[in-house]
From TrEMBL:
ANK repeats: 48-80, 81-113, 114-146, 147-179, 180-212, 213-245, 246-278, 279-311, 312-344, 345-377, 378-410, 411-443, 444-476, 477-509, 510-542, 543-575
Species name: Macrostomum lignano
InterPro entries: Ankyrin_rpt, Ankyrin_rpt-contain_sf, Multifunctional_ANK_Repeat
PROSITE patterns: ANK_REP_REGION, ANK_REPEAT
SMART domains, A to Z: ANK (SM00248)
Domain of life: Eukaryota
Name of the protein in question: Uncharacterized protein
Record has Repeat as a keyword: yes
The entry's keywords: ANK repeat, Repeat
Pfam families, sorted: Ank, Ank_2, Ank_4
C-alpha cells in the first residue's frame, strides 16, 4: 500500500516525526483529528520518506503505535527499501511493539529489497524477546537473504547463543548453507563461538559438511587454532582427513601455522601425517617452510615422511634450505632426509642454499655428504650459482669441500665468468687462488676478461690481468677485450688493457677494429690513445669503411680531427664508392665536411696535382651538392639532438608524466572492473596504459585522434596447457596444446583479435580484445641465459620481468600469422611489454615516441611515404631491442639523433635480412619476447615470392630515404610538438573516456555511493528527467531528488545541475535560482596539476584516486542511450546542445554532457547579470581544451563580437550542429547561410 498525505494546515514533517519519537500521543491524536491520515508520508531531515507508524515502531513508542493502528494505519507498509513497521521494531528490539503489530495481523514474513526478514534482523542484533515474539507469530525460521544466510546462520556467526538455542527448538534447518557453502556450525567455529558450536552439535549439525572451497568446521578450527572447539568436533566424529578443494587437510593447515597443540589433537585422532595437497605439499613440507623447529620434530615423531616431495619435486629439506632454517635442516638430516634429492629443475638443497647465501646450511649439507658438484638441468652447480650471486663465504666453503671451480653451465659459462659478469671481485680472488681456469670460454667464446671489460668492472679486469689472463682472447665473432672496451667507452678498463699490451689491431669477423668502433661512437680520448699505440688508422671493415669514414658519417668532429692529424686517408672509398666527405655532407655535418675539404685542398697544394685536386673537389653529384647546401642551414647533430630532446621534454614526454599516464590508466581499469561487478579479468592495455605514445604531440593525458584505448577481456573459461612448459598437476594429456613460434595450434577461431569502435574529438576510440588463459608463458627470449649475459637491460628490470611471468596471466588472442587464419591463437606478451615500457627512462621513452611518430606519421601516412605495412608495434619492438643492445652510458641527450638513426638502421637491417625469395608471408623481424616468433608486414595477405620481395624491397627503400632525410624529418616533428602549460595540467575525466558505457543497476542499500556508481546515478537521472511521467508524480520527483542527493561532492557540479533541472521541470524557477546561487563560487577540476618538479614515484594509482575523490572531478560524461534523452523543459537554445550526439555519422548512440557548461548555461538563463559567468566567456576563449558544448553556450549567449569570432573559429574544428552554424552566421554578419 502506498502512503499518502493530506491536510494543508498541518505542521512540518520534522515536527511530527519529533512528536512521534517522543511518544506525544496527544499531539498525534490532535493531528489525526485535524485531518492527517495515519499513512501520511513523512520526510525526514535526511530526505528519507517513511510512514508515521514506521516512525513510532523504530523509536519503540507503544502508545503511539496503538493509536495509529486504531486509526487504520497500514501495518504492512513498506518504504523505498522494503522495510515494514515490524521489521523496524525488530531491528531495534522493541518486542512490545512487535507484539502490537502481530496482534494487528502484520505480516511478519515480508522482506526488504535485499531479502532480509524481520526475524533475520532481530537474530542478527541479538534481540532475544523480539525473536521469540516473531517465532510465536509463525515467522519463517528458514528464510534466507540473497547470500543464503538464515536467522540461524547469522545468529551463529555473531555468537548469540540464546537466540541460537531458541531457533534450534523450532523446525529449523541446522545445516543450511550460504551461497559460499558455509553452515552455521562452520561460521560459529570460524568466529570462535564455543557455546554456539556446542548447541549446534547437540542439535545433530553435520560436522563434515564442506563449504565450496572444501573447508569443514574442523579445517577452519585447525586454521584458527580453536582447540576447545576442535575437541568437540573430534568427539562428534569429525573426519580428520577431509581436504579443501586444493588439498589442504586440517593437519596441513595447523602445521602451516605452527599450531602445535592443535596438531597433537589431530595426530591423536589418527590424522594422516603424509596427506598432501593437489600440489603434493604435505604437513611436514608446510612446517619446514616456516621457522618452527618443534612443529617439524612433532611431525617426524608422528611418522611423517621426510623425503616426500611436491609435484615440482621440492622436498621438506629443499624448502628449509631455501628459507634458511638451519635447525630444521639439521633435524631433517638426522631423520635421514635425502640431501641430494633434486626438484624437477634439477635444483638440490645444496644448490638452493648456495643460491641464497645460507652458508651455515651449506656447511651442514656438505658435512652430511651432499654432492658438491651436482648440476641443475641447465648445468648450473652450487659453485656457479654462489659465484653468480656473490656469496663469498659460500664459495669459500665449497672450495674447501673440493667443489669443481671450473664446472660450466650448459651454455658454457664457468663460475669465474659469471662472477666476472657481475663484478664480484672478492669471489674472483677466491677462484683465482683455487686455480680456476682464467681463460675458460663459453659457447660463444666469451671469457672472464671479455665480459668484465664489457661490463666496465676495472677491479675485476685488474685481478684477471694480474693472474695472467690472455689479454687478446677473442670471442667467436672476433671481438677482443680491448674491442668491447672501445665500443662501450670503458676508459678505466681500456687503460688497463692497453697497459697490458693488448693488440690494438685485432678485428672482428666483419672487420671492425678497436679504433673503428671507438671512432664510430665518438670516443675521441680512446681514439687518441689507440693512435698513440700505433693502431692502423686506415683499417677497413667488410664494407670498406674506415675509421675516418664512420666518424664522418656520425659527425664526430674531434675524432675526425685526430684521425686527420694521424694521416688517415681522407679519400678512402667504401665498396659502394662513398667518401668521408660525401657521407658527412649528406648527413649535414658541415663542420666535418669543411675540415675534410680543407684537408684535401692541403694535400693537393702542388700545381702538379691541381687538376687532381679539382677532380676530388667535384666528386659530389648535383644531388650531393644540393644536400650540402641544405645542410649548411641545418643544425649540427649535437644541436638537433639537444633541440629535439628539449622540445619533447617541454611537451611533457618525461618519465614522471609517463608514470602519471600509467597511474590514471590503472585508476580507469579499477573503475571499469568495479562497474563490471568486480570482474578481475578486464584490463586497460596498449599505449594508454603503457605510459608512452598515447599522444605524439603533447603528454597531457589526452589521446590522439588516431590512437585508441585498448581493453582486454580475459575470459575465465578454458585454460590452455602448453606441452613442454606446463607444470600443472591436474591437467590431462588431451588438454595439452602445442606452442610453436609464439602460437598455439588450435582451430576454429576468428583471426581478428580486436573489436574496434570509432573515436571522436570528444571520446577516443576503443579496441576490445578477447583473450583466453594459458597456464604459463612459453620461454621468454630476453630471459634466456645467452641473452641475459649480453643484455644492457638492468638486472633489476630483468628480475622484475622474470617475476611478471608468474604474476601476470599469460593469455592468447584470436590472431594468427598469414595463411594460418582460424588455425592458431597468438600468445600475447602485453603485460611484459607494459612492464618494460613503464620502466623506460625519459630519453628511452622519447626515443619510442619519436619512432612511433616516424612509423605512423611519416612512413604510413598518405601524405608521407604511404607505406602501410609498418605499424607502431614494430617501433615498440625496435625500442626493446635498443634497450637490450645499448649500454647505459650511451643514453645521453647529446646522442639522441644517433640513437634514432641506429634504431631505424636496426629496423632496416632486420627487414633487409628477410628480403628473400622464399618469404611469401611478409615476415620482417623477430618477436622480442617469443622465441622464433615472427613479426610481419601488416595488412598484407600471402602472395607469390616476387610480389612479396618487391613489397619488402619497397619497405627498405622507404627506410633508407627516411634515414637519409632524418634531420629534416626530425625538425618537422619538433615543430609539431606542443608544450604543456605552466600548471602542467594532466587531463583525466574517467566518465568521458569510459570504455564501457551501458548503465548498470544502482545499489540502494548503501547510501554512500562508490565513485564508479556516480556514472550510473547521473545517467539514470538524465533518463528520468527526459520522461514525461515524472512530472505527473510528486513521489517520482522525490525519489529522483533523493537519488541525486546521494551524489558526493566530487560530482558536485553534475549534482547541482541535475537539481536545478528538476526544479525547472516542475516549474520551480526560484528553486533553480537558489541551487545556482549556492554553488556560484564553485569551480570544477580541469585535471591533475602536475608540474615539472613532480617525480615519477609520486605518480601512483592511490594519488590519482585521492585527486578524483577530493575535487570536483566527475563533470564530463559520455553515455550510450538507445535514443537521445530530450529535455523539453529547458529553453531550446540549451536543450539542443545537451546532451550532444557525439557521433551522429556512425549512429553509435553516444551522448556527451559537460555539466559545467550546462550549469553555466542555466546561470546565463536564470541569472544573466552574474558577473562570474561573463568571466567564464574569457576562460573558454583562452582554453585550448574547450569542447563543443562550452563553445556552443558561449557563442549562443556572448555579446562580445570579438569573443564570438574566437568561438566560431574554434567551432570550425569541431562537429557542429547546422542550426548553430546558422545562428552564429546571423549573429556575426546579420545574414543566414
Amino acid at each position: 500500500m502506498q502512503a499518502s498525505g493530506s491536510g494543508s494546515d498541518l505542521p512540518a514533517d520534522r515536527k511530527i516525526i519529533l512528536a512521534i519519537a517522543q511518544g506525544d500521543k496527544a499531539f498525534v491524536e490532535n493531528l489525526l483529528t485535524r485531518g492527517m491520515t495515519a499513512d501520511k508520508l513523512l520526510i525526514s531531515a535526511s530526505g528519507v520518506p517513511f510512514s508515521p507508524l514506521q516512525a513510532a515502531c523504530i523509536t519503540g513508542q507503544e502508545t503511539v503505535t496503538e493509536l495509529l493502528i486504531a486509526s487504520k494505519a497500514d501495518v504492512n507498509y513498506q518504504d523505498q527499501d522494503g522495510r515494514t513497521p515490524v521489521y523496524l521494531a525488530s531491528m531495534q528490539g522493541h518486542h512490545q511493539v512487535v507484539d502490537l503489530l502481530v496482534e494487528a495481523r502484520a505480516n511478519v514474513n515480508l522482506v526488504t529489497n535485499s531479502g532480509t526478514s524481520a526475524l533475520y534482523i532481530a537474530a542478527q542484533a541479538n534481540h532475544y524477546k523480539a525473536v521469540k515474539s516473531l517465532i510465536s507469530a509463525k515467522a519463517d525460521v528458514n528464510h534466507a537473504i540473497k547470500n543464503g544466510a538464515t536467522p540461524l546462520y547469522i545468529a551463529s556467526q555473531k555468537g548469540h547463543h540464546r537466540v541460537v538455542e531458541l531457533l534450534l527448538k523450532q523446525d529449523v534447518n541446522v545445516d543450511c548453507q550460504i551461497n559460499e557453502g558455509a553452515t552455521p556450525l562452520y561460521s560459529a567455529v570460524q568466529n570462535g563461538h564455543l557455546k554456539v558450536a556446542r548447541l549446534l552439535l547437540q542439535a545433530q549439525a553435520d560436522v563434515n559438511l564442506q563449504a565450496n572451497t572444501g573447508a569443514t568446521p574442523l579445517s577452519i578450527a585447525s586454521y584458527f587454532d580453536r582447540r576447545e572447539i576442535m575437541t568437540l568436533l573430534i568427539k562428534a566424529q569429525a573426519e580428520v582427513d577431509l581436504q579443501l578443494s586444493t588439498g589442504e587437510s586440517p593437519l596441513y593447515l595447523a602445521s602451516q601455522n605452527g599450531h602445535r597443540q592443535t596438531m597433537q589433537l589431530l595426530i591423536g585422532a589418527m590424522a594422516d601425517v603424509n596427506l598432501g595437497t593437489t600440489m603434493g605439499e604435505t604437513p611436514i613440507y608446510a612446517a619446514s617452510f616456516n621457522p618452527g623447529l618443534e612443529t617439524v620434530s612433532q611431525l617426524i615423531q608422528a611418522g611423517a615422511d621426510v623425503n616426500c616431495h611436491t609435484k615440482s619435486g621440492e622436498s621438506p629439506l629443499f624448502v628449509a634450505s631455501l628459507r634458511g632454517h638451519r635447525q630444521i635442516v639439521d633435524c631433517l638430516i638426522k631423520a635421514n632426509a635425502d640431501v641430494n634429492f633434486r626438484n624437477r629443475k634439477g635444483d638440490s638443497p645444496l644448490y638452493i642454499a648456495s643460491q641464497n647465501g645460507h652458508n651455515d646450511i651449506v656447511k651442514l649439507l656438505i658435512k652430511s655428504k651432499a654432492e658438491v658438484n651436482q648440476q641443475t638441468c641447465l648445468g648450473a652447480s652450487p659453485m656457479y650459482i654462489a659465484c653468480q650471486n656473490g656469496h663469498q663465504r659460500v664459495v669459500a666453503s665449497l672450495i674447501k669441500a673440493q667443489a669443481d671451480v671450473d664446472a660450466p653451465r650448459a651454455s658454457g659459462e664457468s663460475p669465474l665468468l659469471i662472477a666476472s659478469c657481475n663484478g664480484h671481485h672478492q669471489v674472483i680472488d677466491l677462484l683465482i687462488k683455487a686455480q680456476a681456469d682464467i681463460n675458460q670460454q663459453d659457447n660463444l667464446g666469451g671469457s672472464p676478461l671479455y665480459i668484465a671489460s664489457q661490463k666496465g668492472f676495472h677491479q675485476v679486469v685488474a685481478a684477471l690481468l694480474k693472474a695472467q689472463a690472455d689479454v687478446d682472447i677473442q670471442q667467436i665473432n672476433g671481438g677482443s677485450p680491448i674491442y668491447i672496451a672501445s665500443q662501450l667507452g670503458r676508459h678505466a678498463v681500456f687503460s688497463l688493457l692497453l697497459k697490458a699490451q693488448a693488440s690494438v689491431n685485432l678485428q672482428t669477423d666483419t672487420g671492425l677494429s678497436p679504433l673503428f668502433i671507438a671512432s664510430q661512437n665518438g670516443y675521441h680520448e680512446l681514439v687518441d690513445s689507440l693512435i698513440d699505440a700505433q693502431a692502423d688508422v686506415n683499417v677497413k671493415d667488410s664494407e670498406g669503411c674506415t675509421p675516418i669514414y664512420i666518424a664522418s658519417q656520425n659527425g664526430h668532429y674531434g675524432v675526425v680531427l685526430s684521425l686527420v692529424r694521424a694521416h688517415a686517408d681522407v679519400e678512402a672509398r667504401t665498396v659502394t664508392g662513398e667518401t668521408p666527405l660525401l657521407i658527412a655532407s649528406v648527413n649535414g655535418h658541415h663542420r666535418v665536411a669543411a675540415l675534410l675539404e680543407q684537408t684535401i685542398q692541403t694535400q693537393y697544394e702542388s700545381p702538379f696535382l691541381e687538376s687532381e685536386t679539382e677532380k676530388a673537389k667535384h666528386q659530389l653529384t648535383h644531388q650531393d651538392r644540393a644536400a650540402l647546401s641544405e645542410s649548411e642551414s641545418m643544425p649540427s647533430e649535437l644541436e638537433l639532438s639537444l633541440l629535439l630532446q628539449s622540445t619533447l621534454t617541454k611537451a611533457g614526454f618525461v618519465k614522471a608524466r609517463a608514470a602519471l599516464q600509467a597511474a590514471v590508466a590503472d585508476a580507469l581499469q579499477g573503475i571499469l572492473r568495479s562497474r563490471r561487478d568486480s570482474f578481475p579479468g578486464i584490463y586497460i592495455v596498449g599505449s594508454y596504459s603503457e605510459g608512452w605514445g598515447n599522444s605524439l604531440t603533447k603528454a597531457d593525458g589526452r589521446t590522439d585522434a588516431e590512437s585508441d584505448i585498448d581493453v582486454m577481456k580475459l575470459f575465465q573459461g578454458r585454460l590452455y596447457h602448453i606441452r613442454g612448459s606446463c607444470q600443472c598437476c591436474d591437467r590431462k594429456e588431451k588438454e595439452l596444446v602445442d606452442c610453436k613460434d609464439g602460437h598455439i595450434r588450435i582451430g576454429g577461431f576468428a583471426t581478428n583479435p580486436a573489436k574496434a569502435s570509432s573515436g571522436t574529438p570528444l571520446r577516443p576510440a576503443v579496441d576490445e580484445v578477447d583473450a583466453c588463459r594459458v597456464c604459463c608463458y612459453p620461454p621468454i627470449a630476453p630471459l634466456l641465459t645467452h641473452r641475459i649475459s649480453s643484455s644492457n637491460i638492468s638486472p633489476s628490470v630483468l628480475n622484475t620481468l622474470q617475476g611478471e611471468l608468474s604474476k601476470s596471466p599469460c593469455h592468447v588472442v584470436h590472431a594468427a600469422p598469414p595463411r594460418q587464419a582460424g588455425k592458431q591463437l597468438r600468445v600475447s606478451t602485453t603485460f611484459l611489454e607494459k612492464l618494460l615500457l613503464r620502466g623506460l627512462s625519459t630519453l628511452q621513452g622519447q626515443l619510442f615516441v619519436t619512432l612511433k611518430y616516424l612509423v605512423k606519421k611519416v612512413i604510413c601516412r598518405k601524405d608521407g611515404y604511404n607505406f602501410e605495412g609498418l605499424k607502431a608495434y614494430h617501433a615498440k619492438t625496435i625500442t626493446f631491442r635498443m634497450l637490450e643492445e645499448t649500454p647505459a652510458e650511451e643514453w645521453r641527450p647529446q646522442n639522441f639523433v644517433s640513437l634514432i638513426r641506429r634504431s631505424l638502421q636496426m629496423l632496416l637491417d632486420s627487414i633487409g635480412q628477410n628480403c628473400t625469395v622464399d618469404n611469401v608471408d611478409g615476415r620482417i623481424m623477430e618477436h622480442f619476447f617469443l622465441c622464433n616468433a615472427g613479426l610481419y608486414l601488416k595488412g598484407l595477405g600471402p602472395s607469390h615470392s616476387g610480389a612479396m620481395t618487391q613489397t619488402i624491397q619497397s619497405a627498405t627503400n622507404v627506410l633508407r630515404d627516411v634515414i637519409e632525410k632524418l634531420p629534416q624529418i626530425l625538425l618537422k616533428f619538433q615543430r609539431t610538438l606542443r608544450p604543456v602549460n605552466e600548471s602542467g595540467v594532466f587531463y583525466f575525466h574517467p566518465f568521458q573516456i569510459l570504455p564501457e558505457l551501458r548503465l548498470q543497476s544502482i545499489q540502494t542499500e548503501n547510501p554512500e555511493l562508490e565513485y564508479h556508481e556516480i556514472y550510473d546515478v547521473v545517467g539514470w537521472s538524465l533518463l528520468q528527467l527526459s520522461q514525461q511521467r515524472i512530472s505527473e508524480s510528486p513521489d517520482s520527483r522525490q525519489t529522483l531528488m533523493q537519488m541525486i542527493d546521494r551524489l558526493p561532492d566530487c560530482a558536485r557540479t553534475a549534482r547541482e545541475a541535475l537539481r536545478a533541472m528538476i526544479c525547472l521541470k516542475f516549474d520551480d524557477r526560484d528553486g533553480a535560482q537558489k541551487v545556482l546561487s549556492a554553488c556560484r563560487r564553485h569551480n570544477v577540476s580541469r585535471g591533475i596539476t602536475w608540474s615539472a618538479e613532480n617525480l615519477a614515484i609520486e605518480a601512483t594509482e592511490e594519488d590519482v584516486w585521492q585527486h578524483l575523490l577530493s575535487v570536483d572531478s566527475a563533470w564530463k560524461f559520455c553515455f550510450r542511450f538507445d535514443q537521445r534523452p530530450e529535455l523539453p523543459f529547458l529553453p531550446k537554445v540549451i536543450a539542443e546542445y545537451f546532451p550532444f550526439d557525439v557521433d551522429s555519422y556512425t549512429q553509435n548512440a553516444v551522448f556527451y554532457v559537460n555539466f559545467d557548461a550546462l550549469l553555466q548555461s542555466l546561470r546565463l538563463l536564470l541569472t544573466p547579470d552574474d558577473v562570474s559567468v561573463r568571466h567564464w566567456f574569457q576562460e573558454v576563449s583562452w582554453s585550448e581544451s574547450a569542447d563543443i558544448q562550452e563553445l556552443a553556450v558561449c557563442a549562443a549567449f556572448c555579446d562580445d563580437s570579438n569573443l564570438v569570432q574566437i568561438f566560431v573559429e574554434k567551432l570550425q574544428r569541431q562537429p557542429v550542429l547546422n542550426r548553430l552554424q546558422q545562428e552564429l552566421r546571423i549573429k556575426l554578419f546579420g545574414v543566414g547561410i
